[in-house]
């Protein structure tokens, strides 16, 4: 996976947005995000046909802007829609299942420390998401924030492996996170709740 694809990595579900989520995604794509992860989880999340329809609509938007479409933690949906990739936790089965059935697709894995990092690489990850870097309200069961310490440690040991940082990242702290070794920043609230998405993404791109 090209590391520049992780630069501005937008993660979103319908319940993260204060207005039409497809409009939010379109604005983010027009503003220049480099990757999109469909993450429909938590209170108020869509299910069933509505869930699949929303995913498909997001995928079509991403295709129109030639931005990779990644699905969070749902191997079956990723295979059904022929998504560009999947992002999972430390789940060997999901990684091997997806890899067997979807040759050449992108696999991202969430990691929290050097041990997780080694396992993710051994399991065949194409990139990792490290976090939460800072406190986040988006994921209720998130582990304690690591700050940039773990990120620096992991980058030092794995100096070329693609890394995106996630968790409480904003326009104000993105530069610090990039300086600590992340190839890119993954954001939910910073974009979903922005009243000026174009400006927000432009500011984030200046940290690249």
TrEMBL record:
Q: Which reaction is this enzyme known to catalyze?
A: 4-methyl-5-(2-phosphooxyethyl)-thiazole + 4-amino-2-methyl-5-(diphosphooxymethyl)pyrimidine + H(+) = thiamine phosphate + diphosphate; 2-(2-carboxy-4-methylthiazol-5-yl)ethyl phosphate + 4-amino-2-methyl-5-(diphosphooxymethyl)pyrimidine + 2 H(+) = thiamine phosphate + CO2 + diphosphate; 2-[(2R,5Z)-2-carboxy-4-methylthiazol-5(2H)-ylidene]ethyl phosphate + 4-amino-2-methyl-5-(diphosphooxymethyl)pyrimidine + 2 H(+) = thiamine phosphate + CO2 + diphosphate
**What is its pathway?**
Cofactor biosynthesis; thiamine diphosphate biosynthesis; thiamine phosphate from 4-amino-2-methyl-5-diphosphomethylpyrimidine and 4-methyl-5-(2-phosphoethyl)-thiazole: step 1/1
Q: Which GO terms describe its molecular function?
A: magnesium ion binding; thiamine-phosphate diphosphorylase activity
All residue ranges annotated as the Thiamine phosphate synthase/TenI domain in the record: 8-191
Q: Which domain of life is it from?
A: Bacteria
Q: Which residues bind Mg(2+)?
A: 73, 92
Concerning InterPro entries, the annotation shows: Aldolase_TIM, ThiamineP_synth_sf, ThiamineP_synth_TenI, TMP_synthase
Q: Which cofactor does it need?
A: Mg(2+)
Task: Supply the Gene3D superfamilies for this chain.
Answer: Aldolase class I (3.20.20.70)
Q: Which keywords does UniProt give here?
A: Magnesium, Metal-binding, Thiamine biosynthesis, Transferase
Cellular component per GO, a single term: cytoplasm
Q: What class of enzyme is it?
A: transferase
Q: What is its EC number?
A: 2.5.1.3
Q: What family name appears in the similarity comment?
A: Belongs to the thiamine-phosphate synthase family.
Indicate what this protein is called per its UniProt record: Thiamine-phosphate synthase
What is the protein's species of origin? Desemzia incerta
- Which gene specifies this protein's sequence? thiE
């Amino acid at each position: 996976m090209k590391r520049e694809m992780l630069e501005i990595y937008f993660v979103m579900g319908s319940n993260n947005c204060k207005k039409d989520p497809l409009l939010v995604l379109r604005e983010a794509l027009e503003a220049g995000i480099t990757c999109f992860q469909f993450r429909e989880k938590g209170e108020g999340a869509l299910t069933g046909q509505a869930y699949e329809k929303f995913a498909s609509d997001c995928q079509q938007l991403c295709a129109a802007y030639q931005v990779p479409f990644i699905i969070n933690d749902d191997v079956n949906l990723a295979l059904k829609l022929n998504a560009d990739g999947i992002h999972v936790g430390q789940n060997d089965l999901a990684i091997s299942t997806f890899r067997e059935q979807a040759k050449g697709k992108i696999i991202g894995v969430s990691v929290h420390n050097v041990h997780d990092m080694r396992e993710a690489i051994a399991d065949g990850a194409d990139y990792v998401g490290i976090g939460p870097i800072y406190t986040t309200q988006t994921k209720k069961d998130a582990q304690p924030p690591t700050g940039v310490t773990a990120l620096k440690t992991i980058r030092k040991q794995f100096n070329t492996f693609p890394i995106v940082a996630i968790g409480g990242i904003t326009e104000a702290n993105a530069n610090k996170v990039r300086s600590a070794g992340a190839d890119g920043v993954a954001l939910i609230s910073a974009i979903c709740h922005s009243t000026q998405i174009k400006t927000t993404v432009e500011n984030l791109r200046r940290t690249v």
